[in-house]
Amino acid sequence: MLRPLLLPLLALLVSTATATPENTRSPDSVAPSPATSTSTPSPAPDSLDGDSLPTTVASDRPVAKSKPTAPTAVVIAIHGEVDEGLRFFVNRAVDAALAQSPRPSHIVFDVDTWGGRLDAAFEISDKISSISQCSTIAFIKKKAISAGALIALSANRVYMAPGATIGDCAPILAGGGEGGIQYAGEKIESPLRARFRALARRNGFPIVLAEKMVSRDGAVLRIERPGEPVEFVSKSDWDALADSSRSKAKVKVALEDGQLLTMDDAESLEWGFSQGTFPDAQALERARGWSETTTVESTWSEDFARWISPFVSVLFLIGIAALYLEYKNPGFGVFGVVGLLALGLALGSQYLVGLADHTELLLAGIGVLLIGLEVLLFPGTVVLAGSGLILLAVALILSLQGFTIPDPSMPWQMDEMRHNILVVLGTLVGGMFVSFLAMKWVVPHLPGTSGAYLKDTLEGAHSPAQEGPLGLDLVGLTGHVVAPCRPVGRIRLPEGEFDAVSDGELLDVGAPIVVVGRRPTELVVRREEVAS
Questions:
Q1: Is the alpha carbon torsion for 29, 34, 35, 37 positive or negative?
Q2: Fewer Cβ in 10 A, N or C end of the chain?
Q3: Rounded to an integer, what distance in angstroms lies between the CA atom of residue 461 and that of residue 435?
Q4: Could you give the C-alpha distances from 298 to 79, 112, 131, in angstroms and in order?
Q5: What is the SS3 string spanning 177-200?
């Protein structure tokens, strides 16, 4: 009686035991590598290139599988110097790519850069690492050096063009050292190594080799054992292993102590960083079978902001110099317009790339307003102009960096703030110096310039004391002061008014005087009651 019930149960058990399990691994999941030794990872699974997930529906009725959607990709170019303008563009481009409907299967970062600012590279790395909606690919067109290596390794997979290079991310500081540069040291290397370790674990790159892109210290050994994958181990960790663990191993030095890792496409493929070499991004597209590839282009404002960024300090200097010239001249004229345009262009370009925000613009606006009040309404009030200049300097400092207060976990931010303060102080001093030179040598010769400028010479000038029959006859004459002699002024004698200089005390208007002598261009006078 139980047989009719047992037969279906046996059939169910047999079908369950012989069924093939479905692959449900997510595209971005990567097994972590050990911290002390690293095996060369296997090529990327096909699921990263757009294979649809399996469709299994628990139902007695047959269900037709939907046709897999062909994978699509969005390309974002990371070219040129890594700066705040590039960071702003990458953030916008990634958000635009993820907002597309349907969402792309891959975001491809076309990398070709020598590197640049470390803070901007960290921000770009964070943005790429945070993408979970689709897989990320870095295609190195020519080079991904320094900060470019950090950006490339932030993607799930790396592909390279023939002859392309990646590596050498040791942080350096401008000035000093051999060749005008010096290594930043352990304080900055330590958090950078930690970032490379985290990226290597996340994306399946050799951890020890990734660290050697940052740090020159220590050698790395290549370990080969029969029937096992190649491993890369630091020499210190290898020496600490027991003899039994080192037996039957073929050891070769991969990187010497003091050497930074930089690889070409072949070495990167052999050592587990690259997943393949393609002539260009289009060849990668055809090989992966992407049905559609779109490119997120930069806007004209982003291109302009990146172009003008190296000249921001020069614009600051021009703006400060022009405002100082306006301060030294009464009224509001061309110098005020030039100063406001230069400062507006500098701050505006920083605003376009996301460095300056409303706070910096507000501080700069208040600073310019205070300087304007000093020039137009309260000339000579140093407090207004000084306060405005301080607010303007603070706005300029903040606009040169992507943070307000340095983060202790990012020690390079404090160095950057010090550098920005020195740049702004140098700009202020330089602006004053340039304005002084312009005031002396340029402004008086400009057409249509008005102001307190001496354009006439004294050639042919002569004193009335030397004219005609007056001559020495003026000595001994008495009169009074009509313009204060402090000590040079003007006096009135019976014969007329003459320039005079007081021989002793200062003489106010109306003071009685007597002429006691003469000079080439003026008379010498004393107070009358003390003349004897």
A1: negative
A2: N
A3: 32
A4: 11, 16, 20
A5: CHHHEEECCHHHHHHHHHHHHHHH
